Amino acid sequence: MPDNKVALEAKGVRPARIRVRRLNPVNRRIITDATDEVIHAARHLFEHALPIDDRDDRFSDVWADEIRQPNSPFVAALACDPNGHPVGLITGSTSRGRLQLDALVSDNKHWPSDEVLDGLLCELEPHVREHRVDTIELWGRPAFDWHDSVATAHGMHRIRSLHQMRCSLPTTPSTIATRAFVRGTDEELLREVNNRAFAGHPDQGNLSVDDLERKLSEPWNRDGGIRLYEQDGQIAGFCWTKIHEAERLGEIYAIGVHPDFHGQRLGVPMTAAGLDWLSDQGLTTGMLYVEGDNEPAIRTYRKLGFDIARTDMAWERTVDSTNQASR
């Protein structure tokens, strides 16, 4: 397992504020339109800043199309070296006063990662005031110790961790029989089980008709990869998979069990059913994400051969309204 998790500070000890050497302002700027420059910078940094095993499809053509026509105001902070090569990029959008940011930073001896990230966050402060942001959420994917140092220095606290786990395929076969999702027949049944299983979940809960249709239309979706498990004519659970073609990864995207069927230990066989299908598509690596504090699920996935490959983390800060522009 790569050592890329944020180093936990000693109990009760607050990390020291980082010492920052400011970047030359001419190399750092705010961009409020999703231009080809932003897309190129994101992909350049993605290829050069992360080990190949940490890459995914976050900067796909679908992503590029979405940020060109965002549903909420887009912003990016870009830092380049004197030769014009990107060394850091933060992209984000604001919805209902919440600015969610993703940071991607290259590390080298001339432009240390913590200094680049600190400078980009400072550059965003005028945008935060102008757009009356109430809360800032910053993600490191994957998270390193310098993310935590910089976030703490900017008054943020950690709110979430997300493990990416991987396994080799094929793995232990499922002990239950599942069937494929049938479009035009199973949408409402799938939505009902999903929303009961993920009630209150920040990402997967409260799936609307439009939300489901968008997910079904994504290039990673295969209807056959949504495995449904039935008992007595009712969908007891599902395993929804993704295929990341460029990386040749098969992802367990979501596993949902209807509350009426809790206690039957369906988690392992439902996961295995998805892995079986992914293996049948010729994939040799399975992957999934799990909340860092969900120890029961982590234990379940380890039984199937999964290990933690990386950890993503998020930090949050409530913006002091007294420093904002008058409302």
Features:
alpha+beta; 2 domains; 12 strands; 327 residues; 8 helices; twelve-stranded mixed sheet; Aminopeptidase
Description:
The protein is α+β, with helices and mostly antiparallel strands and 327 residues long. The chain has helices spanning 36-49, 61-68, 113-130, 145-153, 187-197, 209-217, 267-280, 295-303, and strands spanning 28-31, 74-80, 86-95, 98-105, 135-140, 157-168, 179-180, 226-231, 234-244, 249-257, 285-291, 307-318. Strands 1-2-3-4-5-12-6-11-10-9-8-7 form a 12-stranded mixed β-sheet. Helix 3 packs across helix 4. Residues 1-26 have low confidence and may be disordered.
The CATH topology of the largest domain comes to Aminopeptidase
Helix proportion: 25-40%
The CATH superfamily of the largest domain appears as Gcn5-related N-acetyltransferase (GNAT)
How do the helices and strands follow one another from N- to C-terminus?
A: EHHEEEHEHEEHHEEEHEHE
Work out the helix count.
Answer: 8
Return the structural class.
Answer: alpha+beta
- Largest sheet data: 12 strands, mixed
Low-confidence stretches: 1-26
Order of strands in the sheet with most strands: 1-2-3-4-5-12-6-11-10-9-8-7
- Report strand %: 25-35%
- Give Rg in angstroms: 21 Å
How much is the average pLDDT? 85
CATH architecture title of the largest domain: 3-Layer(aba) Sandwich
Question: How many structural domains are formed by the residues?
Answer: 2
